[in-house]
Amino acid sequence: MRARFGDCVLDTDARELRRGGRPVELSPKGIELLVLLLTRRPAAVTQEDLRDVLWPEAHVGYTSLARVVSEVRKALGETAEDGSLIRTVPRFGYAFAGTVIVEGAASGPSRFLLVADGWEFAIPAGEVLIGRGPECALRLPSSGVSRIHASLQVDDRGAVVRDRDSKNGTWVNGARIAEPVALAEGDEVLIGSDRFVFRSSATMESTHTASPRPFSR
């Protein structure tokens, strides 16, 4: 996936950031932070969740996260005072506030979306991992989400979700799944505390107003 914002381009597959057409040095944790904020835009991500994803096996303080945020801002050519891309949410966390054009978010004859309240994820063909780990295309920074929590398999026949032996399970329409489940238009998927509505390309025009209906376990 390639995400364009301002004069920057982030290639998540190559794990490379370019600004003004030139490569910009950014540490692995800086890349992870930027990808995470882009994925969750425009929603704000808590400091706790960001630290949990960036340092899953260690306890670190606020200054460690602040240093990575500062590194990302510098790479994007902005500061905390005049920045328009990385927004600080006082006493909470950070959010990506810029306008983003995503290239290569989905391809092939089968194209689907997972839609949440305020953001959406375009699902490419093939297998997509969902979880907290850096190997996941859809990163969900929550303590209730396993490193590799679930996966989606997309082909010409449709999309199938499966749980990957997660601690808290993957839920479809209020039921915890034990076997792979083929998703249908409007199905609700719960992973950790994140609820999604599954949409097909035929209804993409209506996804901007769609939000999951609450359901109980």
What is the element layout, followed by pairings?
Layout: E1 2-5, E2 8-11, E3 16-19, E4 22-24, H1 28-40, E5 45-46, H2 47-54, H3 62-76, E6 86-89, E7 93-96, E8 101-103, E9 112-116, E10 119-123, E11 126-131, E12 138-139, E13 150-155, E14 158-163, E15 170-172, E16 175-176, E17 181-182, E18 188-191, E19 194-200
Parallel strand pairs: 11-12
Antiparallel strand pairs: 1-2, 1-8, 2-3, 3-4, 5-7, 6-7, 9-10, 9-19, 11-13, 13-14, 14-17, 15-16, 15-18, 18-19
Low-confidence stretches: 105-110, 206-217
- The rounded distance between the terminal residues' Cα atoms is 34 Å
How would you write the strand order of the largest sheet?
Answer: 10-9-19-18-15-16
* Proportion of beta-strand residues: 35-45%
Secondary-structure element pattern, one letter each: EEEEHEHHEEEEEEEEEEEEEE
Shape, per Cα inertia axes = globular
- Main pleated-sheet profile: 6 strands, antiparallel
- Please give the number of β-strands: 19
Q: If helices are DSSP runs of H or I spanning 4 or more residues, what is the number of helices?
A: 3
Q: Give the integer mean of the pLDDT values.
A: 84
Radius of gyration in whole Å, from Cα? 17 Å
| Share of residues in helices | 10-25%
Q: What structural category do the secondary elements indicate?
A: alpha+beta
